[in-house]
Amino acid sequence: MAETVDELRRRLAAIPDPELPALTIADLGILRSVKLIDDRLEVRLTPTYFGCPAFEAIRGEVRRVLDEAGYPSAKVEVEYAPAWSTDDVTEAGRRRLAEAGIAPPPPTGTRAGEVGCPRCGSRETEMLSRFGSTPCQAVMRCVSCGEPFPAMKAH
């Protein structure tokens, strides 16, 4: 028997992001909708940016969960508009990032010196590199505690 749409939405929402496993695809705000339309299930996803290397892995995991749940003919649609923004990261996602030692994304348009240190909370930070361990991260340093830390780039 196939799961209900609500049960399925909860399972899909719990899929971790392959690049930021502290976050789920719901935390990131890329799981846009799970709907039953004319007896056919449709899932809509939005990539964090065009060409995101993790997106195909996410899409594959969504497909696996759908098949496992009894929805092998479900449509998985990619939705490019509205474009994803770091403003779509949920409050729970921001907390999970900070708990993992990654500075959550600041509101769009925030400068490097306004990014808070996930260790001590200071706003006295500086960018060391625009390139971090994943394309969506930068490397920052806290001027107050001296520790380097990854930060999710705002866009």
Structure description:
By secondary structure, the protein is an alpha+beta fold. The chain folds into two domains: 5-84, Fe-S cluster assembly (FSCA) (GMP Synthetase, Chain A, domain 3, 2-Layer Sandwich), CATH 3.30.300.130; 101-152, no CATH class. It is built from four helices and six strands. It has helices at residues 5-13, 25-28, 55-68, 91-99, and strands at 31-37, 40-45, 75-78, 125-129, 137-142, 148-152. The strands form two sheets. Strands 1-2-3 form a three-stranded mixed β-sheet. It has a three-stranded antiparallel β-sheet with strand order 4-5-6, with no helix packed on it. The radius of gyration is 17 Å and the shape is elongated. The model has no long low-confidence stretch (mean pLDDT 91).
